[in-house]
Amino acid sequence: MPESFKQRIFSKATELLEERLDIGSDRQADTFRALKLKDIINKADFNHGKLVVIKVKNSHSKWYSHNPEYAPSVYLTLVPKTVENEALELQKIRKKHQDDPKFDFKKTSYRTKELRCADHNDDIGHADIADADYIMKYGIDAENL
């Protein structure tokens, strides 16, 4: 193995270790902040007012490969507009610690609503796939869920 290649690997490994150590040193302060944000979010009114999208996930189910006439479902994670910034900050903290085995994700989990947007199985609690873009841009009234 060429020496330059070994050096690049060592350099990258050192960089990743330093990042991980920095994240570990932030754990206590980040957990404290995450718990404060969680409390604010959990106290918000999820039943009235505007809900906004803070995360979008697409289904990766193999069912769609057998049913190509349907688009994959889109899952929108929603919180009240009043706590959007807090939810995004908490989400950022949790993402920062995703590879930190000592970060307590269960303790810092927070209340959300999930809306499934699909062009099939239009049950209560679901929206049409065509509505997903509109909801992502403008939100949705909690009373409409």
Description:
The structure is a single chain. The protein has a five-stranded mixed sheet. The protein has four helices and five strands. It has 145 residues and is α+β, with helices and mostly antiparallel strands. It is flat and about 60 Å long. Helix 1 packs antiparallel against helix 3. 44% of the residues lie in helices and 19% in strands.
What secondary-structure arrangement, pairings included, does this model have?
Blueprint (H helix, E strand, L loop, with lengths): L2 H40 L7 E9 L4 H4 L7 E7 L3 H13 L16 E6 L7 E3 L3 H7 L1 E2 L4
Parallel strand pairs: 3-4
Antiparallel strand pairs: 1-2, 1-5, 2-3
Helix pairs in contact: 1-3
Please outline what is shown here.
Keywords: Plasmid. It is built from four helices and five strands; from the N terminus they run H-E-H-E-H-E-E-H-E.
Strand composition percent: 15-25%
The first-to-last residue Cα distance is 59 Å
Strand tally, please? Answer: 5
Output mean pLDDT: 83
How do the helices and strands follow one another from N- to C-terminus? HEHEHEEHE
**Helical/strand content category:** alpha+beta
Keywords: Plasmid
Notable characteristics:
145 residues; alpha+beta
